[in-house]
Design a protein that fits this description.
The complex is a heterodimer of chains A (116) and B (112). Chain A is 0% helix and 52% strand. Chain A is mainly β and 116 residues long. In chain A, strands 2, 4, 5, 6, 9, 10 and 11 form a seven-stranded mixed β-sheet that branches. A four-stranded antiparallel β-sheet of chain A has the order 1-3-8-7, with no helix packed on it. With 112 residues, chain B is mostly beta strands. The chains are: A mainly beta (116), B mainly beta (112). At the A-B interface, strand 4, strand 5, strand 9 and strand 10 of A face strand 3, strand 4 and strand 8 of B.
């Protein structure tokens, strides 16, 4: 079974631009979560999508948004980029239900975003 | 590769020794716990999990211990190897499998 894939792996943008990152979950997983990881801040939860609906949201400004498609693939968008948005953006997928299946999240390799 | 965190607690162990990484969790209602390993430049990788109705679970060279009384989780790595050098995160999940909360991470450094 293929793992979580994220594209692109690396991205360089300038302040004020916008960016879209893509995540393809493990087949059969319906939940996709996005995290921002920076040195000193650890993993910070952005939002979670389940069946094309945002189910949970972290404490990030509205410049950060996302969506999920019917095939469970997800995208996140950051508008009006700031220098502080430079980070590793991680996507994780899981079954996302309260079934007996383990709720483990499996992570992709991340997209490294550098804002200049 | 880039570093995951510059100010993480660090545990240094000699190659071949056992490692114990600790984690305190916050929600007494958390139902499920996971340990992840993150190597430089990569996403977190699942190591082992444990449900709240257990207090110990063993994997290959790893053991997770759960003490619900003091809300403490630990990861034991036997015969630590250089390839074990990484940042280790614990995560707690509610019984709906929706809310994941990650610990700050511990950097494990294996000395030759």
């Amino acid at each position: 079974k293929a793992g979580v894939t994220q594209t692109p792996r690396y991205l360089i943008k300038t302040r004020g631009q916008q960016v879209t990152l893509s995540c393809s979950p493990i087949s059969g997983h319906r939940s996709v979560s996005w995290y921002q990881q920076t040195p000193g801040q650890g993993l910070q939860f952005l939002f979670e999508y389940f069946s094309e609906t945002q189910r949970n949201k972290g404490n990030f400004p509205g410049r950060f948004s996302g969506r999920q498609f019917s095939n469970s693939r997800s995208e996140m968008n950051v508008s009006t980029l700031e220098l502080g948005d430079s980070a590793l953006y991680l996507c994780a997928s899981s079954f996302g239900t309260s079934s007996s299946a383990a709720p483990t999240q499996y992570f992709g390799p991340g997209t490294r975003l550098l804002v200049l | 590769g880039e570093s995951v965190g510059l100010h993480l607690p660090t545990l240094s162990v000699q190659e071949g020794d056992n490692s114990i990484i600790n984690c305190a969790y916050s929600n007494s209602a958390s139902d499920y716990f996971i340990w992840y390993k993150q190597e430089s430049g990569k996403g977190p990788q699942f190591i082992i999990d444990i449900r709240s109705n257990m207090d110990k679970r063993q994997g290959q060279r790893v053991t997770v211990l759960l003490n619900k009384t003091v809300k403490h989780l630990s990861l034991q790595i036997a015969a630590t190897q250089p390839g074990d050098s990484a940042v280790y995160f614990c995560a707690e999940i509610d019984n709906y499998g929706q809310n994941f909360v990650f610990g700050p991470g511990t950097r494990l450094s294996v000395l030759p």
